Structures are given as C-alpha cells and as structure tokens.
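OP here, attaching both records as promised.
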Amino acid sequence: MQPMQPPSHRFRGIRVASTLIQLRRDERSTITERATRVLAAATMWLPPMPCLHGYAKNGKLEAARFLFDKMPQRDVVSWNGMITGYTQNGRIEEARELFDKMPQRNVVSWTAMLTGYVQRGRLDNARELFDKMIQRNVVSWTAMMTGYVEAGRIEEARQLFDEMPVRDVVTWTSMIAGYAQHGRMEDARQLFDRMPERNVVSWTALVSGYAQNGHIEDARDMFDQMPERNDISWTAMITGYAQNGRIEEARRMFHMMPRQSLIACNAMITGYAQNGLVDDAHQLFERLSERNVVSWTAMLTGFAQSGRMEEALQLFEKMPGQTTESWTAIIKGYAQHGFNNDAIKLFSQMQLAGVKPNQSTLISVLTACASLVALEHGKQVHDHILKMGFELDVHVGSILITMYVKCGSIGNAQHVFNRASKKDLVLWNAMISGFAQHGHGKEALQLFQQMQQACMKPDKITFVGVLSACRHAGLVDEGWRFFDIMRHDYHISPTAEHCACMVDLLGRFGNLEKAEDFINSMHFEPDAVVWGALLGACRIHLNLEMAERTAEHLFELEPQNAGTYVLMSNLYAVTGRWDDVAKMRQIMKNRGIQKVPGSSWIQVNNKVHAFLGGDRSHSQTEQIYGMLESLAGQMEEAGYVPDTKSVLHDVNEEEKKRMVFYHSEKLAIAFGIIGVPFGTPIRVIKNLRMCSDCHTATKFISKIVRREIVVRDANRFHHFKDGDCSCGDYW
C-alpha cells in the first residue's frame, strides 16, 4: 500500500478556508467537540508552528492552545509563540503559568514575559523578572526602560538607560521621547546631541517633543535642520502648529508637503476642528479620495466637540466600521453638550453592539450619570470598570467618586476612595469636597488631617473643599483657622472661591458687618461669587439695606443674571414691599431677562423623569397629585405650616399655599414615593436652591412615609430622614 500523500496546495487551501469558516461560526470561549474535530482535520496537513502563531496573533487563543497541547514535540519557539499570544491578548496570568512550566528558556522567552507585564502596567513584576534574567539583549533593556517612561518613573528609566551595556537608535529615541513626554526638553535635547547616530525617527521625536510642549519655534528650527523628512515629520510639525493655535501656519505647512499623505490629512482635519474651523475640516474630509478609521473619527470628533450633534450622528451612522474611538467621540460629545440621556442611551447601544469601551468612554458616561443623578446607570458603569481593571487608575477613581457624590451616594464614594491603592491629590480633593457638599463637615476635616499625615501637600482646590466643609457645617472658628493655615503655613494666596466661602460662613451666622468688612479688605476686586455669597446671607437675615448695596455690585458685574433680580424680589415680597417687587419685574422685562423656571428630576427604573412647578404633563399625574393630597392632610396633622414668604405674587394666603405646595421637587418626591421601591433612597435633583417651604415639607414627608430622601439643589445635598435634614436647616 502506498503511503498517504498530502493533498495539493490548492485543496489544502480550500480545506483550511472551510475550516476557518466553521471555526468562526463557533463563538464560544472554549473549543467544543465539533470545533476540535474540525481543527484536527484542518491542521493534519499543515505545519503546526505557522498555525499556532497565526491563531495566537489573531486572538484565537483556545485554538492555539489546542494545537500547542497536541504537538508531539515542542521547542522553545513554540513555547515562546504561545506565551506571546497570551501576553498580547492581556491574559498575563496564563502566560506566566506557561512561562513557569518551560523546560528551557531563552532571552526571547524572558523578554516576551517581561513585555507582557510592562504592557499591563505591572512594573514591579516586570522588574523582578528583569533582575532574574541571566542574559539580556537590547530589546529586554529597552522594554523595561520604556515601561518606566510610560509610567512616569523617568528617573528609573534614565538609570536603566545609563546602565545599558549596548544601546541602539531605538533605545536612544525612546529615552528622548520619554523626556519630551514629561516636558523635560532640556534633558531630551542633551541626549539627542549625544547620540552616536540618528535617524529620521530620532529627529522627529525631538521635533514632536518641542511642538507638544509649546516650544514651536524650537520645533521648526529642528525641522528645518533635518537631513531627511518623512510623513510623520511633516505631520508632527503640522500638529504642533495646530495644537498651539497657529492654524494658518499649519495650513501653509500642509500645502508645502511634497505629498499630502493620509496621515497629514487626518492631522489637518483634527487641527481645523480643534481651532473651531469645523467647516474647513469637513471640506478636507469630503475631498479625501481615501479615508481610514482615523479620518472618520477625526471628523466625527470635530462635529461632536463643536456641539453639531446631528451632523456627528449622521457621520457616525455612515461610518464603514464603528470603533471604540468613534463610539467614544460621539458619547463624549453628547455628554459635554448636556445631552446626557442620549450619551447614556448610546453607551447602552455600544454594549449591545459588542464594542468594548475604553477609559475615556467610561469617564464620559460617568459624567453624564452624575449630571442626571442616574445612580443605577452609574453603578452599571462602575461594574464595567471593575471588570476591565480601570478602578485602580486614580483618574477613573476620582471621576467615580465625583459621580457617586453628585448622585447623593456618599457611602459608595467613600468605598471607592478607601479601595484605591494609590491616592493622588485629585483623589483626596474629590473625597474632601464630596463630604463638604453632603454636609459632613467633621468627616471632611478628619480626611484633611489624614491627608496631611500621609505627607500629601494640599493645594488651593483642597482648601476650597475644607472651607466649604466649614461653611456647610457652620464651623466659623475652624473656618478662620484653616483660612490662616492656608495663607501662612502653605503660602497659598486666597482666590475668589476661598473668600466666598468665608463671606458665606460669616454672613450665614449673622456676622454681616464682618462679612462686608472682609470683602472690603480683600487684595483683589471681589467678583460676583463673593458678592453673591453676601447677598445670600442678607436674604437669610432679612437685611434689606445691605442687600440693596450688595445687589448694586451684582447688577454691575452680571446685569443679565436673573438670580439677583429674583432674590431681591423675594426680599421685597417678604417685607411686603410689593411696589418694589413690581419694579424689579419691570426692570427684568425691559432688559429682556427671564427667570429660570424651577425644575426637578428623578430617575425611576433607569428612566429620568423631569418636573416643573405645577406640572401636569406626566403620564402618572393623577397618582402624583393624589399622593401629594394624601400627604398634605398627614403633614398638617403633624404640625406642618406652609411657608409662603417666597411667593412673589400679591395674592391671598390660600393661593400662596397652593402655589408652594406644587413646586417641582415636591412633585418629583411624590413620584419617587410611588415608583422607587421601599427601602431604596429617593434621589431628586433641583436646578435652583430649595425653597424653605419645600425643605420643611420634605422633612415631614420623610418621617411620614419612613423613607430617606436625598435632594441635590444648586447649593448642596440634603439628606432627609426621620424628619431631619443633614444640613441642620443651614443652607
């Protein structure tokens, strides 16, 4: 019998092609029995190593591992191929398990594992492996050094660079780029001047570094000296001009190019968009005979950043392939321009499409959740972050804390803070400010003390949080003490925000003259925030004379701000000066100023419901008003007396009571009682300051229905429970 011969190359190709089609139909994460048979049939005539590398490179790790396990003999190349496949696809633990089982290793084995750790940011593991290496080559040295550079550990990178026995042009260029990335252009230039040999990449790294750090003249000087240039060199210079606001010079440089490559065209589209020339960007985009995903995403980002969301969406839907970056661009655009519901809906569609979000996507969606107080959506995004391993990132951690703070869940915010293994200044500031906004003054000050003990130096933002904590908690003496510490111990000059906190702190406790004297003693001209703090204190203590003096400053600084006119109208109404109320209304009318209507919203069953005062547009209006009517009787029996002082209309008392009782936050709270499961806090957001009647009424409601109610108004958070509010009636 003749031995079996392999089929011809033609039939072998057909067999492999049909096998791959069958495998693509099998979308499971492990090789099934059917897929195993197909794979075995497909590979019996093919050399195992090319197959293994092909599967690993394309992310078909189960198929690659199946082949690897079936190989009768494995050499170091096959082991290295499998390890590299695992590391390139982020499966670092499986790579290490295989690495530890290797009967023998070469420098490629060690470098593959080392590079895997570096790519995942696990530098301590990488360095441990690096130190154990018996033999190192220039690739392993450069991989370890680059890991330090990307992590911002530039001194450790330089130490490795200096220790290297042999350096190639890639090593030199990586170190130069590292210095440039961290703004250390003098060090980058010194290293460049010492290079034994340079290529176009080295020159371009220095040109790009100068441009990115705002040294555009130095960048142009180096560009002009380049012995040769490629597309990347030209593009680096174009991008530098565009990023530094010199778009006409970028345009001239673009037209000077010997050949306008797609890379340069994409950079020019981005540059136009960044400088507000979206129509110019679109014209260039339309002229392109060839486009890639970068072209589409650059144009999409231009539309989204400028708020032209309809055009952005049309372009997004026309894209031949929607990537993570394109999804992120449009989601970010919707979130930045206040279309938060649309941002969250698009994120849901992104998930259904099976597109994996990146860090920027998640940050944009968290921002949208925070704006809408969409806590449940925010928690779902947090779950994604945990699965993807982003929570350890301090930037993501600070956004998570901010989201939970704005959604009224200070406990979850504190949990994220406590779990963070590394805490930078931004993280500390986010948590201190969060405690302050929720009225937890003592917790905020305790955290500040812990921050000092951790040898973390506070900045001006830290002290805004600390002084706000004192303000919200009414801690006058502590406020003065921290104000002095800020100036004398940390040599931080007070800003308008710091001064506004002090004015508010003094004024709210009746020290109006001291507050006014404090403003007059300031070393810079007080802004509207400072005067607004004093006017708010005048409202609380009904000091009409000082309020009128203060309002004059605000009318001059912000003549179109309706808030000042409304607040003065409130004061006049409370004191019965209806003629002055009418005058204020007439002034607003003459100046074309419209009062911002009070509105509140609440999320129920992952849907946001908005209400205006006296609103009857909701589908469950009858139940909502019925709930309020039911509560009204119980509240009166419990001692509730409507506070009608804020009503700006000269009508009878009964009409005033009716007007205040159907304010937007009361409607939202009533709907929350109906729709939010018992035991879950009712969370409401209000666009204006909560009026005194709604504040009092909500205390009564929380006790009657035995529910925790969290209201975020324009000033702070109010946690109502058992008839009390966390603000201590100080807001």
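Record two, same layout:
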Amino acid sequence: MPFMRSLQAALQLLILFVCHVNAALIDWAPPLSTRGRYVVDANGVRFKLKSGNWHGASGTYTGSGDINLDTSHHSNENSHTLPLGLQYASLTAILDGFESLRINTIRLPFSNQMIHDTTPIQDFWVTANPQLKGLTPLQVYDAVIKALTDRGFAVILNNHTNKSLWCCGANDGNDRWNKSQSDDVWASDWLFMVSRYRSIGRVIGADLYNEVRRDILDDPNWGLNDAHDWYKASQWLGNRILVEANPELLIIIEGINWTGIPVDGFAHHRPTLEPVRDLSHTFSVTNKLVYSAHFYAYTGPSHSGATGIGETSDLRYRDYSKTDLFQVMTVQAGYVALDAEKHYTAPVWISEFGVEGRGNIFDADRTWFNNMISYLITYDLDFAIWPLAGYLGPSNDNGWALLNWDPTTGKRDSLYDGNDWRAGVWDSLVGLTDGPASPVTTPTRWQMLNLDEGDFVQSQIQSTRGDWDSGATKGMCPDGLRLIGISAASTRALCTNSASYAWASGNPTTTVYNENYVTGSDWASGYTKYQCPSNSYVVGYAIRGSKVSTVLCAQALKPLGASGSGTKWFDKGDNRPAGEVGGDFHNGEYKGVCETGEYVAGIAFTTRVGSNGAPAAILCWK
C-alpha cells in the first residue's frame, strides 16, 4: 500500500506537470491577424505572443580569432550557425524545456549568410541529434521549424544579421538591413524564406530586421527617403511579402535601435518606436502589422549600453524608478498599443528583454527586471525573452538563458531547478490570464497615406488596373477603407472604415479631373472643386508637385446621402473632429478631417497667385 500511494502521488504530480507544460500550447487557429492592439487567431481569439528567442542560426562568432574555436564565440557558446544547443541536447529535450517555460511562440533568428551556406555541417555539431547529420545549416533550420510547429509552437522568422556574427558590434556589417548586401538581395532572401514555409500555418510572422542602428559614419532614419530610411525599406518589403509571397503572415517591424555618436556633448538617442506616432505603416493587406522594441537594463533611452568607450553620462534603464521607467517605456514604445484608434495603433511586441539569472547580479538589474515584468503585466503587452537556450559548464558562465546545458555532461539546468532568481517573477508573467473577452472586439481602423516618397497606392484591386493618372504621384486607401482626411501639404491623408460605405459590385471607380460632377450650391466659392459623382466617395487622389491632379472615387453599393458637416476649410488651420480621431497624420501641417460617420465627397484647391494648388477644403457628407 505505501508503494501504491507513492505511485499514485507520483502520477498525480506527473499529470499536474503535463497540464502545466501544455497550457500555453492549447489549440489555436492560424492564420493570425490584428485587431487594434491585439494579435488574434482565425476565430478572433486573442493570441498573446508569450515568446522566447532561440538564437544561434544568425551566428555567435565575435568576429575575431579562429571561428572554429569556442573561445571565439560569445560567452564561449559556439552555435555553428545553428539554433543553439543541438550539439548537446536532443530536439525533443530542448522543446520539452521550452514547454516547461509555458511559452507559445519562438522567435527564431537567422542570418542572410546562413541561407546561402550550402556546406554540410560537421557531424559533431549535432552530436545529440544524429538525424541532422549531413544537412546544411538551412536544412537544420527547416528541421527545427518542423519540430517546433509539430509540437504546437508558433514560429516567427527573424532576420537578425546579414553576416553570421554575434550582434551587435560597431560597424560589424550588420548595422542595417542593407549594410553588407543590397536592398534587392535582402528582399529576395525574405521572399525565399517566406515562400519556403508558407505551407506551415504555425510559421506566423516575419520580423524584418534586428536592431537597426548607426554604423561608424551614418545614422538610419524614419522617413527621409534615402538609402538608410528604415521606414521606407520596411514599408516596401512588408508589402512585397504580403502581396507576393504570403498574405497570412504578421509583418513585424522593430523601431530604430540607435542614432548619433555616443559621446557626451554629441547628439545621440535610442528612438525605438517614437517616430511611429507621426509616420506609421499601411499595407495593402490590412491587420497584419506588429511593432516591436528591445529593452535591457544596461542600455537606456540615450545610453548605448557601453562601458568605457561609447559610455555616456545618460541614464540606463536600470537607473530609473519604477514610475519613471513606466513613463519612459510608454513614450518609447507602449503608446503604440495603448493609444486606441490612431493611425499607428498596433500590437507592441517587446521582442527582446532579459537579465542574468545566475551568478553575481547587480541589485539594480534585479529591480529593473522586476519592474520590466510589472510593466508587461500592467499593460498586457506581448513579449519575447532573450535567450531561451545557453551553456553552463567549466568554460561557460553566461547566466542569461532560461535553459542551460553543460557541454561536458549534457545535464540541463532549468529556470525551475532552484538556482535562478527569475523563476517566480517569470511565472507571474506567463501565468497572466487577464485580457480581452473572446472574440476580441473589432475596433475602427485608421490608416495613413504617405506620398512623401512617391506613389502610395494600397488598394490591391486598383493595383491590378491601369494607372489612373500617369506621371502624377498617387495615394489610395487599402480596400475596404475610404479617405476621411487630407493634409494641406498634399502628401498625407487619413483613411478609415469608421462607417459602412461598401464598394459597388465590380468595384467601379471614376477619375475626376474637372468640375463636371459639381452640383447644387457652390461649396468652395472661388476654388477649383473636384467632386465625386453622386453615390460615390473618395478613396484616392493624385498630385503633381503640391497641386491636386485628380481624385479617385469609388461607386457605393447603396445610395449615399448628400448632407452632413459640409465644407471643411483647413488652409489656415486644422479642422478636425474633437479628440483628434485617427491621430495626427501630418505633424506640423494643417489638416481637414470629416466627422467619423461621413465620407469625403470632394476636394477643393486653388492655383491663384500665391497658391500652389494644394488641398484647401474637403466636402463632408453622409
């Protein structure tokens, strides 16, 4: 009987453990999309990205010394450009460890160099996984993705580096997506990778590039329309992935990680997602955008994280009080998710954060980590800790990973083995069950058009048709949205689905280039008025320089009203509804926006002396 009682107790513990392990991998239905600040599955159920980073396939080599020696790799952890751990632990054991952490998603970094490496790996690199012998690094990556998704994990592909090197050294060739390769090669590699895994529904996202930052001479930027414009590059590639390769993926865009010279007296900053407030992305396939940001204790809003060379007197994140840290993180990233119904509103995924869990830990680092977890819990943000896997042994003392293997014995040291101070606070994060009711309510969508850098036609329907105004710069809302506001500076506009204005069968449009459809009273006396035909609403427009060239009108499915707030002038000041609906889509410029239930029926402008033909008024009807 004592034996039976012991056996029963052991079985009960096993059942509890299995339930604990699999709780994060309950059934969910791909593909994923977004509803406001939340990621949801195909049934509209919130799918919180409870994630971890399984690094290695982007490289661990520090860039100096013999690449074949472990001592030439970060913390003596040689990944051989494979997901770390395959040399000492079986795939099954590694995935068991991931399940024990109660995560549901894996961020899986890769380098462009790894994709093109056709040399078979050496057998001892995968000693614990003999089934992988003879494969190329990319084929090992394939096998890892299959194992993860078969187990139930979601996988996010992350283009971590160009070259297979540990991130992030100064001028290491990985500072930007196009530092060691062209934009076209970068895009080609992404289209290849996305197409390669398209049939695997649990490959859910494309994280376009990691920690875009300054090299020795040049800063990246957000919207300057040059070779270093991260906004432009990510907008371009995100659309290409969705339209050409896989419309079901989430497109994940990290903010800018660093600009300026990290020396006191010189300008320097970590912009993260701050620029998104003024310039956000709009894709042809809607509800697929996720923004991301990274936070570590030793870095700061204007601190590079360096000690010695590159160190400044600026505060590190660990130097902030809890209250001040919350404020800083909200300004730098959190606001994107927390500000409802703005053009920039989207899920925010803190795709890297972490701290040492073993060894001598700074009290300030412990406090920061606890406060960081508290922030993620308070605002219910998606997250991915760095890293999941590491080595602890006679030659390895890196205590950052949640799961570690001893290279000399193969023994695993886990977060829950009693020697990692992070276990309790981690449990409070992954165990959080609060959240929106299911299915998640679909909020009103607001999207901006940005013609600063050329054509910005986001309608898939119109993209298959001829050019409605050849030679002009054109902007058009994504399908299902209509224009509701425009800037007096011509190049920005606001789109929404704030009321139901469905397109007629066949999606007919009218290009308006004169006043032929102006009827009734003169709603903008002395100004040229490009007005839609009756029962049509504005979905796009074209400019030549600043001058309005044409207006594109969609014929409505049902008859439209011809009353409402009427003419909205914005040539001498903003004219927008209270509450700044949709957000400020052209900072520093005058804007006109109709009321949320209205549609734009026409745009007025003038080319008289002293005027440039830019929009001056819109006609708002409902």
